[in-house]
Amino acid sequence: MNETKRRARRSPTAAELGVWREYIETDQALQQALASGLQSTSGVSPGDYAVLLALSEADDHRLRSSVLAEQIGWERSRLSHHLGRMENGGLIRRHRSGNDSRGAEIELTDDGARTFRSSPAPHLRLVHHYFMLLHPRNLRLLVCWPPVCAATCNKSRPPRTDKALTVSRHKKGHRERSPLKE
Q1: Percent of the chain, pLDDT > 90?
Q2: pTM (2 decimals)?
Q3: Could you give the number of structural domains in the chain?
Q4: Are 85 and 102 part of one and the same domain?
Q5: Is residue 71 part of a domain?
Q6: Contact 94, 105 (CB under 8 A)
C-alpha cells in the first residue's frame, strides 16, 4: 500500500489535530479582526465588500444574481436577503433581467461605487498589518496552502506556479522546490 493510501486511512495524530485546531482558531480570529476593522474604518461589512468587489469588476458593473452568488460563494437565498439590505442603503439596485423574467440583475450604484472606492485603502492597511508580520519564508509557505486545499476540495482554481512559491533551487538541474517539501 502506498504512503498516500496509508495516510488517508489512519486517524489524525495529536500533533495534526493540534495544527488543525490552531488553524481554525487563527482563521476565526483573523476573519473577525479584518471584518471588525473593515466595518469600523469603512462602514462596510465583509459581505458588502464581496458584493461591491464583484460588481465593480463586472462589465457595466452589473451581474445576474445567480452569477453573483456563485462568484462570492453564497447561497442565493442568503444573497437575496443581503442584497435587500444593500439596496435599502443605496449601494446596489436590482432590475428584472431582460432575458429571463425569473432572474434579476444587480447593478452597482454611484453611491456603491464611491463606498467601494473608499474601502480598499483601510482594508489593505489591515491586511498589511496582519500579514506583513510574517517572516518572508512563512509567507511563502502560507501562499502554497490555498491551491493545495482548493485541489483537495475539487475546486476549479488552478494552482499558482509563480516565483512566489519557490523557496530555493537545486544546484543540479535548477529544479524548483516547493516550500512544503523543505
Answers
A1: 43
A2: 0.65
A3: 2
A4: yes
A5: yes
A6: yes
Q: What is the pLDDT of residues 85-139, one digit of tens each?
A: 999 999 999 998 776 667 789 999 999 999 999 888 888 888 888 877 778 888 8
Q: Is residue 4 part of a domain?
A: no
The average pLDDT across 36-43 equals 89
Asked if residue 170 and residue 106 are part of one domain, the reply reads no
DSSP characters for the chain?
--HHHHHHHSPPPHHHHHHHHHHHHHHHHHHHHHHHHHHHHHS--HHHHHHHHHHHHSGGGEEEHHHHHHHHT--HHHHHHHHHHHHHTTSEEEEE-SS-TT-EEEEE-HHHHHHHHHSHHHHHHHHHHHHTTS-HHHHHHHHHHHHHHHHHTT--PPPP-SGGG---B-TTTT-B--GGG-
111 and 79 inside one domain: yes
Question: Which residues span the domain enclosing 95?
Answer: 18-133
